[in-house]
From TrEMBL, chain B:
<dbReference type="Pfam" id="PF01568">
    <property type="entry name" value="Molydop_binding"/>
</dbReference>
<dbReference type="InterPro" id="IPR050612">
    <property type="entry name" value="Prok_Mopterin_Oxidored"/>
</dbReference>
<keyword id="KW-0560">Oxidoreductase</keyword>
<dbReference type="GO" id="GO:0050626">
    <property type="term" value="F:trimethylamine-N-oxide reductase (cytochrome c) activity"/>
</dbReference>
<dbReference type="Pfam" id="PF00384">
    <property type="entry name" value="Molybdopterin"/>
</dbReference>
<protein>
    <recommendedName>
        <fullName>Trimethylamine-N-oxide reductase</fullName>
        <ecNumber>1.7.2.3</ecNumber>
    </recommendedName>
</protein>
<keyword id="KW-0732">Signal</keyword>
<dbReference type="InterPro" id="IPR011887">
    <property type="entry name" value="TorA"/>
</dbReference>
<comment type="function">
    <text>Reduces trimethylamine-N-oxide (TMAO) into trimethylamine; an anaerobic reaction coupled to energy-yielding reactions.</text>
</comment>
<dbReference type="InterPro" id="IPR041954">
    <property type="entry name" value="CT_DMSOR/BSOR/TMAOR"/>
</dbReference>
<dbReference type="InterPro" id="IPR006655">
    <property type="entry name" value="Mopterin_OxRdtase_prok_CS"/>
</dbReference>
<dbReference type="InterPro" id="IPR009010">
    <property type="entry name" value="Asp_de-COase-like_dom_sf"/>
</dbReference>
<feature type="domain" description="Molybdopterin oxidoreductase">
    <location>
        <begin position="88"/>
        <end position="560"/>
    </location>
</feature>
<dbReference type="InterPro" id="IPR006656">
    <property type="entry name" value="Mopterin_OxRdtase"/>
</dbReference>
<feature type="domain" description="Molybdopterin oxidoreductase N-terminal">
    <location>
        <begin position="44"/>
        <end position="84"/>
    </location>
</feature>
<keyword id="KW-0500">Molybdenum</keyword>
<feature type="signal peptide">
    <location>
        <begin position="1"/>
        <end position="31"/>
    </location>
</feature>
Length: 218, 830
């Protein structure tokens, strides 16, 4: 095998790895962005998604939470069951900030905590990041840009478009700094099990991804 | 390598995350260019004043008062917090059990429950289905869409008008009469002085400053209350208060504040205070009147020429009819004001020119009609009604009353009612023997006791059997009395709908919650200065409606579309068309008198000024010739005795002003053995009712440990081992709340103040997170209406009696709950 062939193969390998990481960020972003509806449920219980989740669960750090997600998804046989999960989503992410786990970075990064006005500093920072990448938040997603779904989607974007060092810096500074507190709040407030498992999975994933990135950047 | 293999394994599953589009999209070049327009200053108006605003990356950044506002309220510092506060209703929501079971849902869940997000389309269809069900099953008496609130600035986007016109296109409904602010006053005064007086333009401040020798502020705190207005407030009244302060200092005008509490106005003016026991003002007035008669100080000529019924009142005053002469000694026993001071007051008030300026608080108590009536009698006895700087006013603390009106025609508004040729889908007017209009504060009675007949203002009112309520821009879980009683009533309702900006307590106790945007997220026009009518303001949209909130115009246009009546609703005009029409109609009405540019010119400039008005004296025309310019009373004269009221035969509102004991009264009155402290719940200093309470950063400028302040005397605090900053539990047999102690010399022993408008935040009775929906819950923030009594003022006005309220309080030693008022619905297990 020639050197150039090795490089090409190596490059391909890096691309595949980043593609996989992007897929995970995309999936997490999708699940935080809106309630599980019939379409999403159909997709997530499909063969390919199940294989994807099974592969994710092969990592011990992720297994327990993925098992929870899968088992909850398997119980969603009726409209009522979907609505109950939607009510969990609503209570956690769509109303108030104090007795819920609102998914905005600003609430976890400022001293004023749950009373922090939205569309503040963290929103502005994310808008700038998006703008630099020629991106913006979808108009159909009328949320501040420091919403976790936006930050995860941006992480997906940089997995495919930026170098490891840049990725590491962003994920470390704009996601990992508050994710632990967020996951703890979700776990504390969740009346079900799905979203607390999702939040913990996100935290474990980011921890593991940062480890991986720090190895490749050193 | 392990990680790499693991990740490659993920790709090999060929899974493609399809679930919806990404939340990111390519940057829209046009939108990005638009965002650069952030730089300019935009103009808008609010109850707190007019101001200019600048954005940064599409977000409100700076807010500064309007150039002409020389006395801006610091409440504009709370405006950003109004828009971006975390309590916003972000999406249309439905209570889950209501979505599943409709009108047969478990209503005990209200206030403590699970919601789900729905689309606007789904929400509006649910609203229509509910209205269909109620109209079909119960007819119009089953629906109350008339419990409406205060106002959001703007002539086009009135929340009440839009809601009532749109719901009215579906069917008829129960409505209210009166309001919580001035219910007793606005009912009694038309009998006495011929108009509501409370909302009428008053004698110009400049004339008061020139002509008055004495000003009596009776339960009146204009320096506090003039910060806010019905329309965008100009704050011009403050210039006159500044002059008054100077005149007080120079000894040119004597100002006496008759009030149990040292008011903000008293402190500002540096004027005198006359302490009076709470709720005993009528006794004090009678004592003064008795002294006037005894010393022949009253103006018999004016009484004879301009009033009716003094002869019928006199035997009561002198004790001939009931054996109790209303002497200064008699009054002193009740009021704690010494007979000497009462005698001196009679002398002072009848010497020189005396202007009485009444506040609204003393009519928000049991028999609240009486102090207003008796004050009018005193003013008649003084004989200066209709003279500049004399007589009586019931409104100089409200909006710009007393600032001369420019005389310009004001713009119209979006219609509240159906157009003449329009008919609702459900056109029945069969209220099944019940009344179609009920006194505003009696709606909870109506839900709890349908079919009951009560007396009200000379008529009989039979309570309709209300099954559904629609609220828009209205938070009765702030302004109505007795939360525990409200909970019992809400358990009986089949469907509650609330359209609002934030998760108010009313939203939390609703089934369908629809997000309206703030006044700063839509275009509108407003009058600058309600009574001054100083000009017109362009309310330029500062930011697009946040989340999925919509303007009132848009919400109800969409609802009308669901009814198939969109064109009927909007008359085929867009928001912009309406703004242009309202402006052009106003321009036409002012043609030849006040120059106005075309709409585009006005919008670009942001305002039109109409200039200043001429000083004016209230009732001067009546004084000049009472036959040509009679009052609107039955006789055309001031009615000291009202034959009409006497004919009603009400035991709690007889034919002339009367002192009557209250159901609860402090300082030795009924109930004071058990609950010794009177709680006053006046209009707040840092809010407009409950508007602005949600603005977190601004709230922190006055809150105590995150809670509403409870102001108390040093003596009361010491007796209970309380110091400023302590969390205090205030309680009576009706409820309990937590508030933050502020110990102050402004308060006498036996009096505490908790300002109304403090958002209700119920938690479990023991301070635990769960149980807020239950009767007996503890309010975690300090809403005074947790404690107030839900009774009518009398059979006449049937208005609210929030000021008849005794409590006790203690240092709170239990588990301190987090404040739950600003959090949206809290999900707990029932």
């Amino acid at each position: 095998m020639s050197a150039s062939e090795m490089n090409a193969s190596e490059m391909n390998s890096v691309a595949v790895v980043n593609q996989a990481r992007a897929m995970v960020y995309r999936l997490l972003s999708s699940l935080f962005a809106k309630e599980v509806d019939h379409q999403l449920l159909h997709e997530l219980t499909g063969e390919q998604a199940q294989a994807f989740l099974a592969q994710l669960a092969s990592e011990p750090a992720f297994k327990q939470d993925i098992d929870t997600l899968i088992s909850v998804l398997n119980t969603l046989k009726t409209d009522k069951a979907l609505l109950e999960l939607a009510a969990d989503y609503c209570g956690l992410f769509l109303v108030g900030t104090k007795h819920s786990a609102s998914p905005y970075a600003s609430l976890y990064l400022n001293e004023t905590g749950s009373e922090t006005p939205l569309f503040g500093e963290q929103h502005q920072q994310m808008v700038q990041f998006l703008k630099q990448s020629q991106l913006q938040v979808q108009t159909s997603f009328p949320e501040p840009a420091d919403h976790i779904a936006v930050i995860l989607a941006y992480a997906e974007h940089i997995c495919l478009n930026s170098g490891d060092a840049e990725q590491l810096k962003f994920i470390e500074s704009y996601l990992n700094t508050w994710l632990g507190n967020f996951a703890a709040k979700v776990t504390q407030c969740d009346t079900g099990t799905f979203y607390s498992a999702l939040a913990r999975l996100t935290q474990s994933w980011v921890t593991s991804d940062l480890e991986g990135l720090s190895q490749t950047t050193h | 390598m392990k990680r790499r293999d693991f990740l490659k394994g993920l790709v090999s599953t060929s899974y493609v995350v399809l679930s919806g589009a990404s939340v990111l999209a390519p940057l829209n070049a046009l939108a990005a260019a638009g965002a650069k327009k952030d730089d300019g200053w935009l103009t808008t108006g609010s109850h707190f004043g007019a101001f200019k605003m600048k954005r940064k990356n599409g977000v409100i950044d700076q807010v500064i008062p309007f150039d002409s506002d020389k006395y801006p309220s610091d409440m504009i510092n709370g405006v950003k917090g109004l828009v971006y506060n975390p309590s916003r209703v972000r999406y249309p929501m439905v209570r889950l059990d209501f979505l599943l079971n409709g009108h047969k849902s478990n209503t005990s869940q209200r206030g403590d429950f699970r919601f789900v997000r729905v689309t606007w389309d789904k929400a509006l269809h649910l609203l229509k289905d509910s209205l269909d069900e109620v109209q079909t099953k119960y007819g119009p008496s089953g629906l109350h869409a008339g419990q409406t609130g205060w106002r959001a600035t703007g002539q086009l986007h009135s929340c009440t008008s839009h809601m009532q016109r749109a719901i009215g296109m579906h069917g008829n409904f129960v409505k209210k009469i009166g309001d919580y602010s001035t219910g007793a006053g606005q009912t009694i005064l038309p009998y006495i002085l011929g108009s509501t007086e409370v909302y009428a333009q008053g004698t110009s401040w400049s004339l008061i400053l020139e002509e008055s020798d004495t000003i009596i502020l009776w339960s009146n705190d204009p320096y506090k209350n003039l910060q806010v207005g019905w329309n965008a407030e100009t704050h011009e009244s403050y210039a006159y208060l500044a002059q008054l302060k100077e005149k007080v200092k120079q000894g040119k005008i004597r100002v006496i504040s008759i009030d149990p509490v040292v008011t903000k106005t008293q402190k500002y003016l540096g004027c005198e205070q006359l302490y009076v026991n709470p709720q005993t003002d009528v006794a004090l007035m009678l004592g003064i009147a008795h002294e006037m008669v005894t010393k022949n100080l009253h103006d018999t000529k004016f009484i004879e020429g301009y009033s009716l019924g003094f002869d019928q009142f006199l035997p009561y005053l002198m004790g001939e009819s009931d054996g109790v002469a209303k002497t200064p000694e008699w009054a002193s026993e009740i009021t704690s004001v010494s007979p000497e001071i009462i005698r001196d007051l009679a002398k002072v008030m009848t010497k020189g020119r005396t202007q009485m300026l009444m506040g609204w608080c003393i009519q928000r108590q049991q028999h609240g009609e009486q102090p207003y009536w008796m004050a009018a009698v005193l003013a008649t006895m003084i004989g200066q009604i209709g003279l500049p700087g004399g007589g009586i006013s019931y409104g100089h603390h409200y909006s710009s009353i007393g600032v001369p009106s420019s005389g310009a025609a004001a713009p119209g508004a979006f219609p509240r009612n159906l157009d003449e040729d329009q008919k609702p889908i459900f056109d029945s007017n069969d209220f099944k023997g019940a009344s179609s209009t009920i006194p505003v504060a009696r709606w909870i009675d109506s839900i709890l006791e349908p079919g009951k007949t009560i007396d009200a203002n000379g008529s009989k009112v039979t309570f309709p059997d209300i099954k559904m309520m629609v609220f828009s821009g209205n938070n009765p879980w702030n302004h109505h009395q007795d939360r525990n009683r409200m909970k019992q009533a809400f358990h009986k309702l089949e469907c509650v709908v609330s359209i609002d900006v934030n998760w108010t307590a009313t939203c939390r106790f609703s089934d369908i919650v629809l997000p309206a945007c703030t006044t700063f997220e839509r275009n509108d026009i407003d009058i600058y200065g309600s009574y001054a009518n100083r000009g017109l303001l362009a309310m330029q949209k500062m930011v697009e409606p946040l989340y999925e909130s919509l303007s009132d115009f848009e919400i109800f246009t969409r609802f009308a579309a669901v009814l198939g009546k969109e064109k009927e609703y909007t008359r085929g005009m867009s928001e912009k068309d309406w703004l242009v029409k309202l402006y052009n109609d106003c321009k036409a009405a002012n043609a030849g008198k006040f120059e106005m540019p075309d709409f585009e010119g006005f919008w670009k400039e942001g305002y039109v000024y109409f200039g200043e008005g001429k000083p004016w004296t209230r009732h001067a025309d009546f004084r000049e010739d009472p036959e040509i310019n009679p009052l609107g009373t039955p006789s055309g004269l001031i009615e000291i005795f009202s034959r009409k009221i006497a004919q009603y035969g009400y035991d709690d509102c007889p034919g002339h002003p009367t002192w009557m004991e209250k159901a609860e009264r402090s300082h030795g009155g009924p109930g004071s053995n058990k609950f010794p402290v009177w709680m006053q719940s006046c209009h707040p200093d840092k809010r407009l009712h409950s508007q602005m309470c949600e603005s977190a950063e601004f709230r922190e400028t006055y809150a105590v440990k995150g809670r509403e302040p409870v102001y108390m005397s040093p003596a009361d605090a010491k007796q209970r081992g309380i110091k400023s900053g302590d969390i205090v539990r205030v309680f009576n047999d009706r409820g309990q709340l937590l508030a933050g102690a502020v110990v102050s010399n402004n308060y006498p022993q036996g009096v505490i103040r908790i300002q109304e408008g403090a958002w209700y935040g119920p938690v479990g009775a023991d301070g635990s997170k769960e149980g807020g929906a239950k009767v007996g819950a503890l309010c975690s923030y300090g809403d005074p209406n947790t404690l107030t009594m839900d009774i009518g003022t009398s059979k006449l006005a049937q208005a609210c009696s929030a000021y008849t309220c005794l409590v006790d309080f203690e240092k709170y030693k239990g588990k301190v709950p987090e404040v739950s008022s600003f959090s949206g619905p809290i999900e707990t297990q029932i």
